[in-house]
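Batch job 17 of 40 flagged for manual review because the log was empty.
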Amino acid sequence: MKQKMWDGRFEEGSSELLEEFNASIFFDKKLFAEDIKGSLAHAKMLHSIGILTTQELESIRNGLHQVLGEIESGVFEFSIKQEDIHMAVEGRLTELIGEAGKKLHTARSRNDQVATDFRLYCQNQNQNIQKLIKTLISTLIGISKEHTDTLIPGMTHLQHAQPVSFAFQLLAYCAMFKRDFERFESSFVRNNYCPLGSAALAGTPHAIDRHLTAKELGFDAPTINAMDSVSDRDFALEMLFNISVLFTHISRLSEELILWSSYEFKWITMSDKFSTGSSIMPQKKNPDVAELLRGKTGRVYGNLMGLLTVMKGLPLAYNKDMQEDKEGVFDSVETATASLVILSEMLRTMKVEKVNMLKACETGHLTATDLADYLVKKGVPFRETHHISGRAVSLAEKKGIDLSKLSLEELKSIDERIEEDALEVIKHINSMNARNSFGGTAKRQVEAQIAFFDGFLAES
């Protein structure tokens, strides 16, 4: 017995195995709101060109709103027989309003319908992620404003290098997340074009108004080529790529938070609200949220690679392989959304251990370069000053103290050209503030960076 909307040329019914393997209804039902929104716009366009009467248009509108209400309230029954969200909505609409429901699919295909639904979803989620990134940047700026004078060892190779402010380090992440925001923003503009009306692959003989449909759905314009429109998933790939780069930065920050919360660092203390314990070791307080954020990075990378692999060898136009485009995107979007929210809250509630940070600056001879630069200003070639400063570090090592704790006499024993003003140069706070070049760690520059990011948030 034939039950499919498409089975007119078939003599036999579908295998149950095929039905289960072919159906996407149990994951693409997430697109119900986008599908109904697209159908409402399409119906209005069909009415404008005379295919639907005013009565039919109103009947379709009322029916679609009833279907929407049924799905939102949970009374709508999804079945594998419906195959996908498009057939589920259209089938229920036809049950409710009769023959008018069958007219709705005029001048469209499931190919352009799914491309439109999925693009609408990605565009909506893009804007939501943009907002969450801005919230994260705002959180980091708020912490930075309180720590422009809080010293930590800036590191290279995970070794103590030069003194910087804690604010300076956090603002480095603001710069990363700003670029992430801009990637999403750029993708939104580039992909804000409407595929609906492309039909199966070559357009339609009906005199449709694709510009009206695009405007109704909030797109800038219709897509330019029907064949590309139904086979394009660049917008989904960009979503996955943008989320992957975002998670590169989330993972790097998470790694530092994990290190900073360890007993070896003890620069921060995580709130109990965002920590877990051990089932066997009662003393443990684990940074599980940061570890999960770091771990979920592999998950979103995998989703990107999955869709890249699906798309890499497909001939034009639509192919069923492309049904595999959605679950990875849904997963990455949900992962990014939840992760951005919890990361902001975890940062907002953590305690910054300023005393421990300052103590960490007293190991590693962070002001060795400052001593070398001090001698350069006295006319000594840098290569020579580098050697002199290295000997001072060696002396401090032998005495078991930091370079900044050497006395003037001890410094002069290395080189007579070192004078009393060198003692101010090798103080950590002065070293930090000496780096007053644009983008540097000096308090003045950090405050300028904070003002820059505040302005970015206000404008975007």
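Reviewer: the log was empty due to a logging misconfiguration, but the result itself is present. Strands lie at 151-156, 159-165, 193-194, 221-222, 268-269, 351-352. Unflagging and moving on to job 18.
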